[in-house]
TrEMBL record:
This is HNH nuclease domain-containing protein. It comes from Aequorivita aquimaris. It comes from the Bacteria.
Amino acid sequence: MIPLKSANNLIVDTHFDRVFERLQKSIKYVLKNGCKYKKVRYTPDATERAFLNTLKQKIILKGLVTASPERLQLLRRYMLKRFPHIHLNTNNLNRLLYKIFVLDAYSTLDKHSFIAKLDTDTCSYCNRNYIYSLSKSSKIKPELDHFYPKSLYPYFGVSFYNLIPSCQTCNGLGVKGELDPFSNEMVSPYLTKDDDYKFTFDLTKLDYLSPLDGSSSVDVILLKQIDGNVQIFKLDELYKLHNDHVLELVVKAEVNYTARYREYLNNYKGLTFSDAEIDRVLISNYTSLNELHKRPFSKLYRDIALELGLIV
């Protein structure tokens, strides 16, 4: 729902440097010993051995780990064309690559450090929850979702732009899980645009005697959406549960609260506010497109506030 900005090259290259030796070492091990999964021994055949020998080259591994979001789509197509059954977890090469990229490389990834370098504070999929973590040793840890699931696409196990910072709800069991985003027509947050989603609302009645007690009379509607993402993450259903946020904005618009308070802040002696800062104070959330990642529900607040004329 909230677009993720591409990281600068230094951050992406540093990520590769941290996983490169582990990957190369694991590939050499698998070439020599294969791997074991559920008491079954998997060893590379001649074609797979040639592929792994090519893969262990630094330039090839770097191209895979640092591939752009668009490049990941092309690599997916290439891999499925060359190895049509690679997405099956019973496939020989799938198991070998899972050992290399997931069990050996991703399992040792410092997720706290990885997310700390990304410029985002809320879940990219839903914008409903923070994704803060306190420290490496804390039980409150960040979540990373493999947009292309690691069981289907193990070769993307540590690809920088396949690792999506997300909340425990969106990354939980029974949500996206191991569903294939390609067949479910999902879009990566790195390829999501600012106008891919748009909220509106339907207010059937406003009780002027108890205006904040009538949230059941407000229906939150996604006027524009990415269907696959909304269906998988149940965004339509979840946002309908937060209609109290919309009702508060409606009440502010009805009592002309923001116009008077905007004038007050503009004329406040000793303090100077930008227009974006005044908007933030008025509706209690960020409204600038480049700041929506900073607070939950910011996209909802921005869209509804614009519709109500609370901000311009």
